[in-house]
């Protein structure tokens, strides 16, 4: 097998690497086929953190976020979702949406709340983070490609 | 000519140095000499274009300090914070370094007043010069201080990056230090040995597609005046340049060469990496290895603190002096001073053992550090995509209300437009990390081939190191 790999011409090698890349990028990853459910999260926002900061849901879940600012005005918007809400101190703001985009998304504070405001970030995890897994596999492939593809 | 200059010239003309340069010439890949292009030539030859740009950056620098001291204390409404840490820091990592190496150093305003005092004039040297012109202490040479400076930035990053007053004081401190060092030591001691940004740009300049090099070494050998060396503010002799880490692209050598023997080359990316390494004659220093590792550790730390979802980590990094901050600082230092150097040294040692390499471990560690450069550069670029792009709207708003005093020049101060990168930035970050990893592995393979001829055995532990770092960055950025 190793002899066969060594004997392949560069065109074949790079062809195999390109094919493997496409497979990693587009081959479906078996996921959790859970039925969509209603999920509710109560998030406390204070300088400069959300609690909880990491939310995990399944694709298709109907998600309600109750945002409660505990010190100053805070907001919440989610990357990849066109959503935004703002909470005054002590007042709960609601946000409801269907988690129809799969992957890992950052949510951020939208109201200037102090020095670290630009870095007040949380994470919404919708189903499997395919990008991370595919990225890790591609990293392995990049390593292999750099060695094997460049061999003379 | 003083004693140091004599020694430096002797070193530069030592048989080994010349042999390296001359023997490496046939292997030089294709290059385009920008100095030979008619419309670029006058721009490089004249002092004026560079002087005008540096005047603008100096004015911008002074205004940044003013805005930091007297503008709004809210960082996102202050020109100092947004232009230093969002606009300039992003431009440095996405454009200046990857495309121009140390090109920022050629227009940086910080060493300007010191340089004027040193040479006794603004554009030309005069007889009346200021300063003691001492040699930089031998013990402090290399990039150790720059690495330390970068670690200090990491320790105080959460505050420095968000507090306009502190940013102004840091800039003034750098400015003052640059002037003082110019008055005490010869040439650009501050840039070469102290400036943390100089260390950052210098080490990654090796990957960039720009270089200043001599065209014909024989012409230099016959030129007894060495005007290029005497006029170089960095104290470099172009014939002895083995990579682009130290050259600040100021073009003084090019302007002073009477034989038109200096080229400003466009070259393939990464030409300095694993090039001309037979017998390990290329410069390979432990201080550069340490700097490269600090850059990796800092990229991990910045990504975790500034783009991660861990509020307690941010609070710890922000609460300077508190027990939580001490714990954060301890973790940062352990990562940079123990874990990464230890893991890298172990990887090099294992590779040496496995492949039967006979190179001294210290030298092998220094030599293999080149592998870390593409990895680190692309990690920083990937981090910048998620760090800076979502905050671009601040740039537009502070242009027209730079002090955060409620001005609304041209009605754009309340601009909320920001490039929406959320759709493609995670994929782009993965792609950038993969490019860095692929490039690093290619460098590792080339290095191993030139050094021992036994590739896989020697580099396997190093590949594991690179892969582990890439996966960690991947998890921090898109996990």
Summarize the structure in words.
The complex is a heterodimer of chains A (152) and B (479). With 152 residues, chain A is of the alpha+beta class. Chain A folds into two domains: 2-30 and 133-148, no CATH class; 38-127, Sandwich (Immunoglobulin-like), CATH 2.60.40. Chain A has three helices and nine strands. Chain A has helices at residues 2-7, 10-26, 130-148, and strands spanning 38-46, 49-51, 54-57, 62-69, 74-78, 84-87, 92-98, 103-108, 121-126. In chain A, the strands form two sheets. In chain A, strands 3-9-8-5-6 form a five-stranded mixed sheet, with no helix packed on it. A four-stranded mixed sheet of chain A has the order 2-1-4-7, with no helix packed on it. The longest helix of chain A has 19 residues, at 130-148. Chain A is elongated. In chain A, 31% of the residues are buried. Chain B folds into two domains: 3-266, no CATH class; 289-402 and 416-477, no CATH class. Helix content of chain B is 62%, strand content 3%. Chain B contains 23 helices and three strands. Chain B has helices at 3-12, 15-24, 41-45, 48-70, 79-100, 103-107, 112-119, 144-155, 157-160, 164-184, 189-194, 196-204, 217-222, 227-231, 252-256, 286-307, 311-318, 323-355, 361-368, 372-388, 392-399, 425-451, 455-478, and strands spanning 32-33, 210-214, 262-266. Chain B has a three-stranded antiparallel sheet, with no helix packed on it. The A-B interface holds A 48-51, 53-54, 79-80, 103-106, 108, 112, 115-123, 129, 131-132, 134-136, 138-140, 142-143, 145-147, 150 and B 74-77, 158-159, 162-163, 305-312, 314-315, 318, 386, 390-391, 394, 422-423, 426-427, 430, 433-434, 437-439, 441-442, 445, 455-456, 463, 466-467, 470-471, 474-475, 478-479.
